[in-house]
Recover the amino acids of this structure.
């Protein structure tokens, strides 16, 4: 495979917004891309659990890839998660995603319970070897019904050179040794909203693939850490941690509340869910308003500073 630049930094994975008619809203996707790029993200991702991939048809998923690629216009790499359940289905999707502008694809263990781990590895390896795009693998034992061991992930990377990065999700103490070993030859990203991100960075992770509602703070944290200002980065992490914890309790809560916080921050007028969705309570809306007051708006103008309240908590001023 040709050499590629190493991936690092913050690659937010975008929400699926819908119009009143229930169809995907391309204007809301454009707005998310704009504010994430203005915040200085290092890449953009689509079609994972945050994008409600389980609620989207194949054509809808490909539409999102095409819309995002057009809006990004080559400024940062675009990752797309692959959801098909067969090798041929995944390869067909990857081929079309590449045609529509994707730069990388992310594979997940197929959601088929009771399959031996060696068969899951054969599946992932077969797709990676024939993929026309470089591949990452997501392993999320906390939110996905099928996962593999860290040792198997290392073997998968060694045996299939087109696997260029891993999204290692789980308690930092459980994936720390894996991250340190894998990061020697592979790009390793943390997830779960960055709930343990400084710890993940100490263990060898090079970046984060989070939901987008904290993109400005997470980019600032990454830049502080990369510049050796780890104490300030830790302070910023402590300031946003209540929001991360609130959003990390479950995937349905993240989709219901995280999307609404993103809408508040980017000035989007209304969220139309694709049902079924967790009921948003009046108290939950009060908490979102409190978070919004702390975080402030997400601007589409490059160079915008963090909100004053957040800057004060993080010791910027």
């Amino acid at each position: 495979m040709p050499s590629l630049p190493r991936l690092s930094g913050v690659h937010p994975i975008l929400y699926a917004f819908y119009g009143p008619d229930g169809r995907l809203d391309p204007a809301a996707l454009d707005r998310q891309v704009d504010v994430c790029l203005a915040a200085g993200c290092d890449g953009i991702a689509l079609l994972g659990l945050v994008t409600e991939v389980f609620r989207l048809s194949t054509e809808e998923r490909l539409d999102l890839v095409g819309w995002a690629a057009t809006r990004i216009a080559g400024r940062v790499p675009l990752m797309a998660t692959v959801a098909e359940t067969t090798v041929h289905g995944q390869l067909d999707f990857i081929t079309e995603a590449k045609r529509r502008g994707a730069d990388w694809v992310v594979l997940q263990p197929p959601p088929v319970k009771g399959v031996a781990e060696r068969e899951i590895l054969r599946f992932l390896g077969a797709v990676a070897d024939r993929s026309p795009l470089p591949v990452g693998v997501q392993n999320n034992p906390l939110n996905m019904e099928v996962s593999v061991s860290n040792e198997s992930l290392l073997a998968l990377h060694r045996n299939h050179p087109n696997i260029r990065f891993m999204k290692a999700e789980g308690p930092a103490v459980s994936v720390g040794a894996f991250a340190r070993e894998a990061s020697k030859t592979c790009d390793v990203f943390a997830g779960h909203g960055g709930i343990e991100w400084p710890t993940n960075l100490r263990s060898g992770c090079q970046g984060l693939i989070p939901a987008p509602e904290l993109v400005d703070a997470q980019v600032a944290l990454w830049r502080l850490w990369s510049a050796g200002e780890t104490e300030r980065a830790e302070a910023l992490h402590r300031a946003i941690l209540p929001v991360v914890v609130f959003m990390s309790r479950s995937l349905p809560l993240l989709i219901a509340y995280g999307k609404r916080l993103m809408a508040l921050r980017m000035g989007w007028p209304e969220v139309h869910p694709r049902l079924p969705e967790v009921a948003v309570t009046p108290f939950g809306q009060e908490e979102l308003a409190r978070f919004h007051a702390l975080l402030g708006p997400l601007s589409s103008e490059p160079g915008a500073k963090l909100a004053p309240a957040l800057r004060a908590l993080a010791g910027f001023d």
Q: What stands out?
A: Residues 230-247 form the longest helix (18 residues). The radius of gyration is 19 Å. The CA atoms of residues 169 and 295 lie 25 Å apart.
